[in-house]
Amino acid sequence: KDTFAAKTIRLLCGFFFHVPGCWIYFRRMKELVFATHNEHKVLEIQAVLGDEFRIMSLHKVGFSDEIPEDRHTLEGNASQKAEYVYERLGMDCFADDTGLEVAALDGAPGVFSARYAEISNEVKQGETIPDANMRKLLKQLEGIHERRALFRTVIVLIISGKQYTFEGVVEGTILSLKKGTGGFGYDPVFLPNGYGKTFAEMSLKEKNKISHRSRAVLKLADFLKNYPE
Ligand code: IMP
Asked: In 14-147, at which residue ranges do the beta strands (DSSP E only) sit?
């Protein structure tokens, strides 16, 4: 008579051989660490990648180091973060960095987008960081007609020790006044080309269809889905 263990093994084998979808699913399920402490970004990327991949935040893998991010380009920062995590965890991983690049300001704030007002000590008391950043940006562009700008996201993936870079861009213009209350960062002053509303006036779904970040993530997803086992 079969033991319970033998029965269980036979049942599992039958399941895998007779339901090919499950076999492919388990064979292709790939785990990747996203070198970020931002759980919201992890959920966003997991949604694009689907369940063939398991994206784990640094928190999930118990990694609490403050990761250095002091290079002068988005590519440099993304690569620095991915390398830092790969060297310490030895797990396939990726990191991202984003900036707003304004043509009339020679690409500023660029890699300094998050700290644009802070680096010149222009944050007023009681003001939020994004508000201070936008105030500084609008001041820099006062009287300037050339308002072209773009958001750029760079993702660096390290898989089996090799680095791959993906980029997503959305072009637009910088308004002279804030419009809309949604989104985050510079969204209220960014009007994407071909749209009659700012990122801050769009639903998350609308923004995600055209955003720099989702464009970069889709390229990453495409690469991973075609990556050899
Ligand atoms: P991060 O690399 O994603 O942390 O982005 C750096 C900075 O760029 C943020 O702190 C924001 O100021 C700005 N930023 C990034 N993505 C967006 C966006 O989708 N809308 C508006 N601002 C953004």
From this structure: 30-34, 53-56, 93-102, 109-110
Gyration radius from the chain CA atoms = 22
Which residues, in sequence order, are CB contacts of 116 under 8 Å at separation 6+?
108, 109, 132, 133, 136, 137
Instruction: Calculate mean pLDDT across residues 54-62.
Output: 94
Distance 156 CA to ligand 1 centre (A): 17
Our mutation pick for probing the ligand 1 site, out of 34, 67, 94, 113, counting the most ligand atoms within 8 A of Cβ, is 113
Please say whether the beta carbons of 141 and 148 come within 8 A: no
Rounded CA-CA distance 197/189 in Å is: 10
Residues 66-101 pLDDT 10s:
999 999 999 999 999 999 999 999 999 999 999 999
Q: Residue 65 catalytic? A: no
> Which residue's CA lies nearest to atom 14 of ligand 1?
185
